[in-house]
Structure prediction request, 758 residues.
Amino acid sequence: MTTIRAAATALALCGLVAVATPASAQTAVQRVLYASPSGSGTACTATAPCSLDGARAVVRTLVPTMTGDLVVTLAGGTYARASTFELGPQDSGRNGFRVVWTAAAGAKPVFSGAKTVSGWQKWDAAKEIWRAPLPAGTSPRQLYVNGSPRPRAAGAGCEKAVCPADATGLGGASATGVAGLRHPEDVEASIKVRWRNYRCGVASVSGDKLVMRQPCWKNSASGTNRTGPYWDSTTVDSGRYTGVAFFENAYELIDRPGEWYANTHDGYLYYKVNYPGSDPNTGTFEVPATETLLRLGGSTTDPVHDLTVNGITFAYATWQQPKSDEGYAGTQAGLTLTGFTGPVDHAGRYYTKPAAAVHVRTGRGVTVSGSTFTHLGGAGIKLETGTQRSTVTRNTFTDISGGAVLVGDTEPNPPAELVSLANTVSYNTITWVAKEFTDSVAIWSGYDAELSVDHNTIANVPYSGISVGWGWNQPEAQKPVLRDNRITNNAITNVLMPTGGQHDGGAIYTQGPQPRSVISGNYLNRSEYEGTERDGNGVYLDEQSSYLTVERNVILRVGGKWVSNWAGYGIQNTARNNWTDTWAPALSGTGSTMVDNQTSLATLPEEALAVARSAGASATTVEQIVPDFARGKPATQSSTSSAAGLANDANTYNSSQTLSQAQPYWQVDLGASRQVRQVEIWNPNAVAALSDFYVLVSDSPITAAGLAEARAQAGVSSYHHAARALRPSLLDIGRTGRYVRVQLAGTAALSLSEVKVH
Prediction:
């Protein structure tokens, strides 16, 4: 048997010392096997490596009599996966030892589901469109050129008045131009309603009607009774529907460099080159063709266990459901409703998760670490069907159509062997995910117990950052297995991105009663900041969220509340010792309290800075609060419905308001001339729409009441904002000034949630 010193040397060569079991220093290595993309045979040595399948076959012969860890070392290069690589109970560790699949020191093994597109010929010289044969058996939703994603051909959407929705489809076939396309049946409509994203295909055109594919459209419309009557208020045929965000996937829609269309009718992929005269034959074009690259699967009686995957890149996986008749009927957080019929259940039991590049099913003690997940058409990794005591740590996730990490299940009260228990998601870096299915979240968890989501860095997500809990206060989910969960020390920036078009979420979002659960030490900066709504929250204790403690978090620049707990049936939540630059109403629910929080801060104290800097997967750069010259300074307005001081009190959840009048104004005296770089205008999202207004800046008092006269006054600079104000709209100024005025051009009441002068 290998000595302890030799074992440590072998692990070091494999890059494994940091990811082995806690007792790794004392754990022997029974054997190191070697695999490479071109490997063959059964020797599995450094000079005669095996294939993946060959190495797995050898491991299976060694597992029954393990006397140390079995380490499979992967050489660098691409391991093309036309099918899923499977590891099961027979590939698991025994006798207290582990089976480890790891990158060789310095190597970058890539599990790839890509097929190459080649043989390009110029098709339309005037438009610089080329075409090449589609790889056999593919109908791609993604295309990558030299490792960079390219956009599928897309055109404008339509407002509700042009494209009214009903139970079978959409109007506006002629006005949108879809009726005139050669293959309208290839077209997909993307619709966004609050926190939901729907992507359904067109089945046919009938007059001016777009008949949509089923069951996608049925599951996106009201009346299924499979999501509950309340949730039908956000269906495609509800009052919340405002129109189609865009139509996608037709040859005629190719009009921007890099756009493409896969024509499965003639078997060609069409592509508009980036630069005139470019020849795509000089590049590498790849389309994902395999759904799941690696599956670690077991059963409740024979789980997959004691297995580590380390240092592998998982790339170019697809997800087939969205292009089928099922489409993407979003329910929440990247899960969908599928099937023509199904059980009536309002607690989300039967919602469908996306396919993932790595799929762990009924795992025990599984670790996935140090790996990269990129260029994926579904999700990154999912742990489900009662996976327990397993870890996803120190991985990188980027350029993914759906969420990065999904942990847990949708059954509120499973048997003990199917409880998602004591799993850990830690020290991962997650950026630019949910790129296609924009209602997905970076890290999702359903009904979990003893979950730890710790020290992750999350940035640039269209919807929520971390979502833990499920159930929406439905009767069948009021006493679920949720308990003892910890969301700690994460750095989450720029979520609910306004460009994503999704609303009603938070940097950290929860549902359901979760006794003894904690949200602590997180740095949350920018949640629906510069958005249109005021429901982009910092910590969002939604629905029946109960028994949660929110403490020692730093929460800045949120379009809504720094902590939101609106539902009266969410009980005994506590928010204490947090730091924030704004204010929020008291928590709802019996026994909920807010204690010793430092709100409306003008600057972050050193203790808060230390918490923020230590959050995330690595050292975090903290964005300090920008000084606001207007805060608390004397404010006046042309008339008063609610006090002028409510617009500069560091509370973005109340509003000043004038009476309805011609060209109303609000004005603040900064007390002295300041170098004014920028003014923030916060739309109250209230009855009086805030648009078509001017910001006036002067070193001298602005005395004229009328807009034209005020703008013409000597020394006054005028800045016009024609569109609807956001939360906030940022206006660059760049001059000295003591007096700042906001004034409407028309006749209305002027209402301001907040005005900040920097």
Remarks:
- The longest strand covers residues 665-682.
